């Protein structure tokens, strides 16, 4: 039987034609998200650097010329991200490119996303990559999304919406070596519009956390997203899910407090946290020293997290 079109197409586009090809040698199947995360936590690395690499904010010093007039969008974004990764690779538990900042630039942006992930695999092979794409659709469509995230882009984890339920997300949940990071209580100001609604006598976000922990996590590959701007909710989610990993955005530009976030978010081992900072790290300087500034900010955040663990 012929493969579905999306699978065949992605295999054609993959670097060596099959899922799991690793330009470093071996197979990408050897990359297990949870194992990689645990290894970084063992080094006291809890910072996730969000590669929200807005082209307009990238310093002039790193802008790359293209073949024609003007800059090369792909080359500029890739060069910027590569410098950030080189400067922070020993300090982080993950990198998290947000697909929106790449997809906005069409073919060049998507190429930059693919090349950035390949660069991370090459420069920081022990650091997992979280694709922040917030995918959700019916099951058949999700198979295409899963292929794109894991086969073509070769991410180690992906963020997903729970709204369509476990059945629809099964193509993601079946990926036992990947991280499936489910939105639970987000960091935006309007998050409570639906997430705080009462369901079976408790807020919806708690119901989601309970369901993911008890029903969806059969492969031990689930995690949740809870914002640092929702400390009360973060503490409740941690009690519900035990030692499950929690991706915690909202530190830095969004105003989340590190001390309170760590106290609410750490698991029984003082671990379990993927604390994300994006703009506060990657755009810490507008000058040629942007990579050094990113390293300084990453060290500062890393040290503060560990101070309160």
Q: Describe it for me?
A:
This protein starts with a helix and ends with a helix. The strands form two sheets. An eight-stranded parallel beta sheet has the order 2-1-10-9-8-5-4-3. A two-stranded antiparallel ribbon has the order 6-7. The model is unreliable at 1-28 (pLDDT under 50). The protein has one domain: Aldolase class I (TIM Barrel, Alpha-Beta Barrel), CATH 3.20.20. It has 309 residues and is α/β, with parallel strands linked by helices. The chain contains 13 helices and ten strands.
Topology:
Elements: H1 5-13, H2 33-42, E1 47-51, H3 73-88, E2 92-97, H4 100-103, H5 106-123, E3 130-135, H6 139-152, E4 157-160, H7 165-173, E5 179-185, H8 192-195, E6 198-199, E7 202-203, H9 204-216, E8 222-226, H10 231-241, E9 246-248, H11 258-265, E10 273-277, H12 279-282, H13 290-308
Parallel strand pairs: 1-2, 1-10, 3-4, 4-5, 5-8, 8-9, 9-10
Antiparallel strand pairs: 6-7
Helix pairs in contact: 1-6, 3-5, 3-13, 6-7, 9-10, 10-11, 11-13
Q: Residue share in helices?
A: 40-55%
Per DSSP E runs of 2 or more residues, the count of β-strands stands at 10
Mean pLDDT: 90
Percent of residues in beta strands: 5-15%
Radius of gyration over alpha carbons? Answer: 19 Å
- What is the SS-derived class? alpha/beta
CATH topology: TIM Barrel
Count of spatially separate domains: 1
Major sheet size, sense and barrel closure: 8 strands, parallel
State the fourth-level CATH superfamily: Aldolase class I
**CATH class placement:** Alpha Beta
How many helices? Answer: 13
Strand order within the widest beta sheet: 2-1-10-9-8-5-4-3
């Amino acid at each position: 039987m012929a493969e579905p079109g999306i699978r065949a197409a992605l295999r054609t586009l993959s670097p060596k034609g099959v899922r799991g090809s690793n330009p470093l040698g071996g197979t990408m199947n050897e990359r297990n998200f949870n194992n990689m995360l645990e290894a970084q936590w063992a080094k006291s690395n809890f910072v996730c650097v969000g590669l929200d690499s807005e082209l307009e904010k990238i310093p002039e010093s790193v802008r790359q010329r293209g073949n024609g007039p003007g800059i090369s969008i792909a080359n500029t974004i890739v060069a910027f991200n590569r410098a950030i990764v080189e400067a922070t690779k020993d300090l982080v538990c993950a990198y998290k490119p947000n697909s929106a900042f790449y997809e906005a630039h069409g073919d060049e942006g998507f190429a930059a996303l693919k090349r950035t992930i390949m660069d991370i695999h090459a420069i920081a092979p022990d650091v997992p990559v979280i694709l922040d794409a917030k995918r959700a659709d019916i099951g058949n469509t999700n198979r295409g999304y899963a292929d794109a995230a894991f086969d073509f882009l070769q991410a180690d984890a992906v963020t997903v919406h729970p709204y369509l339920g476990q059945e629809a997300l099964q193509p993601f949940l079946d990926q036992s070596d990947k991280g499936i990071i489910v939105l639970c209580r987000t960091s935006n100001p309007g998050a409570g519009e639906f997430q705080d609604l009462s369901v079976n006598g408790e807020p919806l976000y708690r119901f989601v956390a309970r369901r993911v922990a008890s029903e969806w996590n059969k492969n031990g590959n689930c995690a949740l997203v809870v914002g640092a701007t929702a400390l009360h909710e973060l503490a409740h989610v941690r009690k519900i899910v035990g030692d499950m990993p929690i991706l915690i955005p909202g530190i830095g530009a969004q105003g989340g407090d590190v001390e309170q976030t760590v106290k609410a978010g750490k698991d029984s081992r003082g671990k379990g946290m993927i604390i994300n900072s994006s703009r506060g790290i990657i755009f810490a300087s507008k000058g040629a020293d942007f990579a050094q500034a990113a390293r300084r900010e990453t060290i500062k955040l890393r040290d503060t997290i560990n101070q309160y663990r």
